Amino acid sequence: MTTNATLDAPRTAPEHAETEDRRRTGPAARDEVRPLGPDSLTWKYFGDLRTGMLGIWIGALQNMYPQLGAGVEEHSILLCEPLQRVARSVYPIMGVVYDGDRARQTGEQIKSYHKTIKGVDARGRRYHALDPETFYWAHATFFMLIIKTAEYFCGGLTEAEKRQLFDEHVQWYRMYGMSMRPVPKSWEEFQEYWDRKCREELEINKATLDIFDIRIPKPWFVPMPTGIWDQIFRPLVGAQRWIAAGVFDPPVREKAGMRWTLGDEILLRLFGKLVELTFVVVPDEIRLHPRALAAYRRAEGRIPPDAPLVEAPSFTAPPRDRQGLPMHYVPPRRSLLDRAGALVHTTFSLTGLGWAIPRPNSDKAA
């Protein structure tokens, strides 16, 4: 989850949800809390680099939820270090899907970052990041990130695959130990839930406008002149805004005041097909997030099942004066070689690019 929050005090304590889970001792209950594995569609799509092209889409959608926007405005430092913030956060988020028997522990880790994200917004409404409704909304946007990425950039999904992904997203959400009360009971109910949120509850607030107008300052660790960096990232951010406009549900696009024509739709679909064809030759070492790649290698027996989990590069750590705050994940320090490899992957994954010269003998992880 992102470091987001909610306008109402939590209605169901996560500890209570955990107690409810522990009370379920039958076979069905054990199935409910088992982690996702390499046979799942979620594994296939969530760790794919192409999800990065919807960065502005998901960031804006999360912040449009009033409860999340309030917490972001008061607690987030995203605008000061957007690349570092996104890069380090993705590692534990990926882990809830890809960490196997350790996925629930990773879910607890993420929850712990949200315990102190609370307060009162400008309209006098209380919010807390662990409110079940709000925490689930953030999860729902990650689920829809998979649906939208597959639809636009991976060749599409059948209705059966969407239903399977819905069931998997429920199984995935159980890894957090949160109350299951807000979770729709079926794919049909989820579509109604999503439509209702988009039409009735999402709003354009300061946190959303900050995402739309975001500027990506050059991080200190990128060996590139600032002028060149700016020339690369301005059009990339603009392209992500355009993609977001096309992928938004019509009510959200209307609220955001974005124009979308038939010509735009045709161009986006053609671009999506080009991306799909291009990624046929992109090796897994570039296509997959490092946490996902390591998970496939564990599943194939190429590395030990208890191998240390892949952590974010140390150069993505939050500013030193904030590293003691409980809301931040602080990656461990790594060797120079590890930093170099992570730098390459992080830079290109965050730009939404996936170029690589395929190696004829490269091992496929998926």
Task: Tell me what you see in this structure.
The N terminus and C terminus are likely disordered. By secondary structure, the protein is mainly alpha-helical. The protein is built from 17 helices and two strands. A hairpin with a 5-residue loop joins strand 1 and strand 2. Strands 1-2 form a two-stranded antiparallel sheet. Pfam families: MPAB_Lcp_cat. GO terms for molecular function: oxidoreductase activity.
Overall shape = globular
Number of strands: 2
Mean pLDDT value: 82
- Residue share in helices? 55-70%
Describe the strand arrangement of the main beta sheet, using strand numbers.
1-2
Cα gyration radius (Å): 20 Å
Give the low-confidence spans: 1-31, 339-366
Largest sheet: 2 strands, antiparallel
Q: Span between N and C termini?
A: 25 Å
Tally the structural domains. 1
Secondary structure class reads mainly alpha
Portion of residues in beta strands equals: under 5%
In DSSP terms (H or I, runs of 4 or more residues), the helix count works out at: 17
Order of helices and strands: HHHHHHHEEHHHHHHHHHH
Features:
single chain; 366 residues; mainly alpha; two-stranded antiparallel sheet; 17 helices; 2 strands; 2% strand; disordered N terminus; disordered C terminus; MPAB/Lcp_cat_dom; oxidoreductase activity
Short description, anyone?
It is built from 17 helices and two strands. It is mainly alpha-helical and 366 residues long. The chain has one domain.
